[in-house]
Amino acid sequence: MKKPQIAADTRPWRDPDAVPFVRIRNVTKTFGDVYAVDDVSLDIYKGELFCLLGGSGSGKSTLLRMLAGFETITKGTIEIDGQDMAQVPSYQRPVNMMFQSYALFPHMTVEANIAYGLKREGLPKGEIAERVAELLKLVRLESFGRRKPHQLSGGQRQRVALARSLARRPKLLLLDEPLGALDKKLREDTQYELVKIQEQLGVTFIVVTHDQEEAMTLSTRIGVMNDGKIAQIGEPQEIYEFPNSRFVAGFVGSVNIFEGVVTEDEDDHIRIDASAEAGCDIYVSHGVDCAPEQILWYAIRPEKMVLSRERPEGDANIVHGLVQDVAYLGDMSVFRILLDSGKRIHVSQTNVSRYDPEGISWDEKVYISWEADAGAVLTS
């Protein structure tokens, strides 16, 4: 999927001299003794589609509400486009927010819903009509302007809510679980629409979601939140392939994690004794900042592992087990395997053939192997 063109060439977050559009510094929000957001610092650049990803209670929605001005900051600062927001009420901020419920007025037409904020601003009728028409075209609802919300599908209502939130031309649009009310197929289709609209407008989007697949599809960068803190910030591929902790590795996608002890620590490789969980040594083809005898965790994605009936060559990165379950998902099959050590892992394979009568199936003994650079070494 084509990502927004904001930083295709420069990626401002990689430029130490780039000026952030949104600057969050040491922001904390407490409710009594509970830290909903705990000392969060974050820079977001103009034109980004940034996703805050986390589970329930991680603090992502509270952080979004502080950006909007709906919650006060206990400690820290938030700047938008160089302006400190501390004394700026929500209705004066260059920000708009789109809620999961869409909050459309049921008695108003689509056109009236989109025009509502513009009328409150006192814009001339001609300018309002022109902007509403422009937004209806943007969200591909030109022929739906006279309809009421109950006459629309879920995806259409979502687009009306998006058009309404863009009507006042905010510099920053905040979206709280914007696709959460849609079914899976419609949600997937709407993700592409959202990226296309954001790309056309160049408005900075900050999206809150608990859906890691949605975050990977939409975002230029992702901030993974846990217990009120930012666990990791990075581009989607970086978050997925190079997680910085067991939490991030487990939260973003499916993963197998083996605990072990470092037995060799060289500049160009390390060897981990993971016999207790994997039944083998794990060889990693690059150096790691660790010490001999240090406990580490090795995380490897199911699609990076290879199944075979015959033992591959080598003395490391080869485990053995019994196939307990096979889930056929159409494009891929997921194998649930009980290793000889007693640990269960998942291995996935792409279904390149329509039917494979010789394919590995239930109750088979198999070997599982992987390349020396296939996984990530974690120290926490």
From TrEMBL:
Recorded catalytic activity of this chain's protein: ATP + H2O + polyamine-[polyamine-binding protein]Side 1 = ADP + phosphate + polyamineSide 2 + [polyamine-binding protein]Side 1
- EC number(s) from the headed UniProt entry: 7.6.2.11
Signal peptide: which range, if any?
none
| Name this protein carries in UniProt | Spermidine/putrescine import ATP-binding protein PotA
Which gene is transcribed and translated to give this protein? Answer: potA
List, alphabetically, the InterPro entries matched.
AAA+_ATPase (IPR003593), ABC_SmlMolc_Importer (IPR050093), ABC_transporter-like_ATP-bd (IPR003439), ABC_transporter-like_CS (IPR017871), Mo/tungstate-bd_C_term_dom (IPR008995), P-loop_NTPase (IPR027417), PotA-like (IPR005893), Transp-assoc_OB_typ2 (IPR013611)
Q: Name one Pfam family in it.
A: TOBE_2
SUPFAM superfamilies tied to this protein? MOP-like, P-loop containing nucleoside triphosphate hydrolases
Q: Can you list the GO cellular component terms from the UniProt entry?
A: ATP-binding cassette (ABC) transporter complex
Species for this entry: Pelagibacterium lacus
Which GO biological process categories is it annotated with?
putrescine transport
Q: Which family does it belong to?
A: Belongs to the ABC transporter superfamily. Spermidine/putrescine importer (TC 3.A.1.11.1) family.
